[in-house]
Protein 1
Amino acid sequence: MVNYKLIYFDGRGAGECARQIFALAEQPYEDVRLTKETFAPLKATFPFGQVPVLEVDGQALAQSMAICRFLARKFGFAGKDDFESALIDSLGDQYTDYRAEMKTFYYTALGFMTGDLDKLKTEVLLPAREKFLGFVTKFLKKNAASGYLVGDKISWVDVLVAEHVSDMINRVPEYLEGFPEVEAHMKKVRANPQLKKWIETRPETAF
């Protein structure tokens, strides 16, 4: 039996998509949650000096997107063929671009950076949201028969996007205004029985 250990901070953040893939697969794993104090002495032992890190029978894999792709392919949430898998990956890469574009707003909202949050919302977040959710909407309209972003089965990028959207509407209530397809997608994904159970029982954290 393979032993999985996911190491991240005590928050959802970049570790949550992997946790939700484990939940979808109903796969046991060790959910290690670090504090700043417990992270410091371990930092040098991680492949890139950061978390999340997934240990698979003691072998370490870093970078959140690589971890998600690995787990999704392992458990069957990466598309039914190579092309679907590539489409899913492309959405994941576009999400990474979007997160870089809206980073200053998000980190300021969390208190990790200082700045004028209202100005950052107008000048940084909303333009990035408009572009990214526009792309997401195109995929959802093209794949309307299933309600998922790609193919006829939930994938890791559905989980990634739905979790982020849910987080953002709690921080910016108008985040989904004008994007009904994205809202419907979020609700569909989070209604999955395995995900619903995890979301209802996971630890309450600030991010």
Protein 2
Amino acid sequence: MAQEQYTCRWAALSLSNIASVFLPDLLQPRPDSEPIQHELVCVSTTGGNERAAKWMNENKIPNQESVKVYNSWEEMLEKGDFDIVYISTPHTLHYEHVTKALKFKRNVLLEKPATMNRAQYQKCVDLAVQQGVVLMEAMWTRYLPATKYLTEELLPKIGEVKRVYAEFSFPIVSPDLAHSSRFLDKQAGAGSLLDQGVYALTWADIALNGLGAGSTITDVAHASSMSVPGVPGEVDDIDTLVLSKHEKDSKQQKAVGIVTTSMTLTGSSKPAFYQRLIAKKASPAVRIEATKASIAIPFPPIRPQELHVQWYGEEFLGEDGIEKEEIIKKPVERGWGIWYQADVIAAAVRDRKGSEKQGEVIGAEESLRVLGWMDQAREQAGIVYDEKLEQL
């Protein structure tokens, strides 16, 4: 029997730059046959109704007249009539905003990185379970067709992963960028590791732990950082991490991960942001090397659409004696594909309607693991933020 169609009603806490990408992507027209639909029903902004109206017009939000505008995010969380709140404020504010939302028993999709550190997100996870709601970090890359195919179809077949390279460098910081920009403001959580490294570390986690960690643990064996030149506050820029996956008891090393990120390298910062983001690069952004095959993922790693696989063994050799490359295309169905994650949390909320079960945190283990690696890397590389931003 076909499942009844469900329309998920969204609230937006902040009309941020990333909200200007996510919400239009979420609200694209869908075939009536799809079981989940989405609508925006309320937003909060300190800019008032005029600011909200301008933002909705610029982003072509449908049914604007039915979107309720709140001038207080706390009032929206307390009184708004919606199913899920999308929180996309600077990550230094995430802990305050998500804990307040959870206390009002709201389901939450929270932008990445979920919080400033692992301890903060662990508190959020515990609170969501206690309050009986759904919480999810918006690591949208995990839910794209190419990523799902890799984890479900390829990882079980390529043997034991021994090494992974994960790189995400993108020039969001140019020499003429104002020092007051969010990307250079340490009080707003600026820094390459938290802003971009979270993607590269997520790919390392998918490769090293995509089939489960089992009896192993992965730690940061080395981390170094170079700051953005000429900017006060030592904003981290060129970061390099080495991950070591080893047995918990014997400490025998099983695999290694090399993760790099930068917000000044590589390429020009002049073309439009999204033009640069989809520009092809010569080398792959991610390379997974296992005992039976290797997989390369072209840039950009945040939005993979094809997987380049080389299988090992004589039966896969070409006439030149080199393993043939298989290119598996798994394109995004429409838009940027940020909406896939929204379908995941919407389905979880739909399935819990009227339930008294304890709460659910989608991807909790993975999010906590990556946040833990960033904690370790920051300590080793000397990346420091105001301690008030780290408090519980």
Protein 3
Amino acid sequence: MAATAATAAQATPTTAAPSPPQHKSVRTTGFLADQSRHPRGAASTSRAPASGATPRLLAAPQTTAPQAAAAQPLPEMQTVCPSGQMFGRTYGSQSFEAGVDPLSNGWDVASGGTAADGVKWATSTVTASETTADHYLYGLDAPIPTSGRVYAYFAYRTNATGDNAVVWFGNTGFSLQPAASWSYAIFDVTSEVASYPGHMFVDFDQTGLGITTDQTYEVDDVAVYSCVPIPNAGVRGDWTGEGTVDLLGIHSNGNLYLYPGLGNGRTGSGQIIGTGWNTFTWTGSPGDVTGDRRTDLVSRTADGTLRLYAGLGDGAFAGARQIGTGWQGFTALATPGDMDLDGRPDLLARDGGGALQLYRFTATGGLQKVRQVGTGWSGMSWIIGMGDLNGDRRGDVVAVSRRDGCLYAYTTTAAVGLTSGRKVGCAWGGMNWLTSPGDLTGDKLSDLVARAANGDLYMYPGRPGGGTGSGIKVGTGWSSMASIL
């Protein structure tokens, strides 16, 4: 990762919420669709059902007491997403700890037993004499994106039969099978996203149609969420979790752009995923700092504060967490990978005297100084972390000399020092930005990306030992980017 970046004033960037990634469809439900009634009023012309809207079921609810492993309040994340996906972000959730929506009818809060989540849940009972009863529960109004796949799950138990226990997603209802113990129903509700753009309503309805005995319907732990691809471990620079290295660009106006990698050294079109990122004096990607198999970002403010932005695996980031102060005195920062083989990425920092200091990321995401690994580095215009250059699994670096414009490779020793530089190429002085986002070409070697003075962007495929192949022009008009990583 490049060692320098444009200087700007302090501010905390915001991250936009891109649509969840697409994935293939799953099998259709065996539940009975029932659109004859709706607690929010399906007959309203402003809430007409979407044409052909039918949710898809990922996993049918259990009709008998669940096994011990499945009786947890929240299923394992893999069970709420299709194969190859993992839980992404929650758009909305409800466990009725504060009561039920006051506009609901016939529903109340129960406690004193075992809830699926928390200590309370919503409950409704229709007696045998209430054959015309219609108890409805406004469960959840979750703000959602208008595109991308959306999922919902909830826990329920009921002795109701027929169409007397119904769940509604937008304008589509499903009758539930009886379940004596808490059971989870998990749905792909993407087809209902268009019902009320920007919202996903999850509601519950109990009636007394033809009943001869009292029937109870209980609900808890309702959630609407997204799934994302399971990240590939060790793929530095993979911001989307798709297994290919992507490019990030910080525009001079502060917009953060994501350019998804295509796996052949090129990228797709850029999309804005954040704003305010020109307020940092340096931003880099050390790799997976938090241990969740997702690539993370670290940024430095003008006052020397280091902030960690944990990657979410879908092109977005968690909120900032401060991990250090006093870093304004360093004239260059670089992210080489794991130099000391402790299983976590490291950070190189050049101080005002030209000495190169090594810091390791700790298990809690902080930084700990390891040792000084070099002196005389003031003569380098670029210091770039390249990952492992010689197959020993240790992170290595390359640097461009101000004196001759040549590129030198430095590999890490077993004593966690750096070897003498080996010249691996020249004529790099004409490039005004250099970075190594990772392996863009899929050949297991990190590549270099360089920007020429006219704004053209070139990709140089990595070679064993730190050299590169011939440059390939992969973009134009990149002069407006204050930082590329």
